[in-house]
Known about the structure:
heterodimer, A: 555 residues, mainly alpha, 0% strand, globular, disordered N terminus, B: 211 residues, Four Helix Bundle (Hemerythrin (Met), subunit A)
Amino acid sequence: MNPSLARSEVPVWNPRNYLNSPETGLKSWLLTQDHKRIGVMFLVATTIAFALGGVFALLIRIELLTPGPTIMSAQTYNRMFTLHGVVMIFLFMIPAIPSGFGNFLVPLMIGAKDVAFPKLNLLSFYVYVAGALIALFGMIQGGADTGWTFYTPYSTTTITKVVPVLLGAFILGFSSILTGLNFIVTTHTMRAPGLHWTRLPLFVWSIYATSVIQILATPVLGMSLLLVAVEHAFGWGIFDPARGGDPVLFQHFFWFYSHPAVYIMVLPAMAVISEVVCAFSRKNIFGYKAVAYSSLGIAFVGFFTWGHHMFVSGQSAFNGGVFGVLSMFVGIFTAIKVFNWTATLYRGSILFATPFAYFVGFLFFLVFGGMTGIALATVSLDVHWHDTYFIVAHFHFIMVGATLMAFLAALHYWFPKIAGKRLPEGWGLVAAVMIILGFNFTFIPQFLLGNEGMPRRYFSYPEKFWPLNVASTAGASVLALGLVIVLVYTLVALKWGPIAGSNPWNSRGFEWDTPSPPPPENYETTPVYTHGPHQYDLPGVETPPAATPEPKHAS
Amino acid sequence: MPANTTYLAHHFESLEKQTYAARLGMWLFLATEVLLFTALFAGYGVYRYLYPEAFREASRGLETWIGFVNTLVLVTSSFTVAMGLERATRGDGRGTRLLFGASILLAVLFLGLKAVEYTHHFHAGELPGRFYTSDAVQGPGGPIFFALYFLITGLHAIHVVIGMTVLAVIGWRAGRGAYAAEYHVPVELGALYWHLVDLIWIFVFPLIYLI
């Protein structure tokens, strides 16, 4: 008698899986070195952070419902948009896909038993938790009101509790570095026999490119945040113009990380989309090498574009022009991906399921946000739009829109893999429509507001901006409702959802070669790869045989 | 193969791959350390460009002989660490412990000299930012030089302390026979870290004391 089978109460397809083996207690989760469990813990933690950041966002939108004060003071409002930015960027968007889904999927996709350094992986999670708690402590103590960019000299003189928030972000950076380091080494050393670089799933390629950015850019950010904290606490004057310091130097340091950080958020989104588009059009990717190398291209060029955040900071017109042109190179690499994804759809057998709906949303947000990005990289136009709601709408489209779509696509596509259950398809499509439409109604009015000259981060505004602000808040409510629906049916499906089976999508991504949920060691015998992922034209690659005993169905 | 069963982690197929992974991970980690200091070096470059005179004067006021002796001390400690690693490749754990111990003593000497130097700065009022009370250098360049001086050397000193801890733990384990001639990767990685700490000082010394 299989002891784990006897212990398992949950009816699942694969009776011995990572959820119930080797143990099920809380301690076995908190001290686990299994990349799948760590990935799930990251997903739970980042989802909580996402909910928190979402609450801040709604409070901001409610405040902006009327031109004057609505529900909070100006000081509280400043804290709200800062905390919204800090939580969403450092606690949700940077770790959610790489540390959450990436942790779960990368070893499965390369036929490995685990990541290269499992203990470091667990450490990365606890470093994340520590950083989050310190940042949270700062928020409870009064929060920061500097905006997530922490621009000096304001950030070094503000009376709010900026130091714990800075230290929290500094520590979160180390979590990011450790995860990136782990993925690079894992991709280099843990690939199963036959899995050449040209057969590597595109998800892994893109996560690899992300990891390179995480390793190279994050230390610089950590250092500059630390400098701001030192200056705020002790007055050392590095960025203080009154003491001969140069505040613009901080902007250079900050954007040297934070512009590549945009690609830390978007490349994992592209990673997810490259898998989803293949699985749901039942075709291999149109241009494998183009998509793979363009990820590296984005990671490389992303390091030379930071100056486009500083067109109005007094840098020379020549610098502005160079940074503008370099920024447009990112558009070229992104366009290569977009064309290849759409070409993949051509003559594919498309299954319009929930993940595919999010793929469509992703494509719209990426292209719309990307095109406004090209416009913003043009110096003369940026001078008009700088620090207006146009910028806010632009980066929400490209960063948040794309990342959120990919996160939800990943959730719906891999939920059967992770939990062994299915999400309700009908509710999924309803929520997808609400989220995509709500997102558009939130941010398209903000494009218009910015173009008319409404500055970002302002507590009140002239009455002529009122109608569009109401429209934006209305859109945000629809968006929030859609997200709540997703949360509710995900939690319901976790307990009462129908059994998914090993491969409900009949996908030929490598991660589906093992039963769902996967056994603790991923593969009973190390797989040998003779072809790339998503080869739907190959005969004889059947879905894995049914596990014995037959699954008990949840009624 | 006793070595394989003792040292191989469950998720690696061979000891060679595991060693390769550990080395690659360490080199990547060292790259992040270099970038951490690069931010400070870049800041130093920018302010030296803005205040060339003040930086030259402030730099001339430092006690170059302490910096020079400290450079010799650290290079010697790197040498003893390399000898300790060479012992480990021959399976001589006790030799590794002895040589790593010598390196730690040299590191203590380094920190002691650094402390003497810091004390002199405190007495002379050569302190960062608003604490600067010395009249040796006029204008804002002096306080900024000493802000960067304390940041760079302070961060380096923290790395020295971390490196000493690493050497102590690994040396102690090596002395107890935890590694063997066919498996001494932790010794190698610890030595790599120490060499990096040393190498960063090789950049700090000319940057702050000489030019």
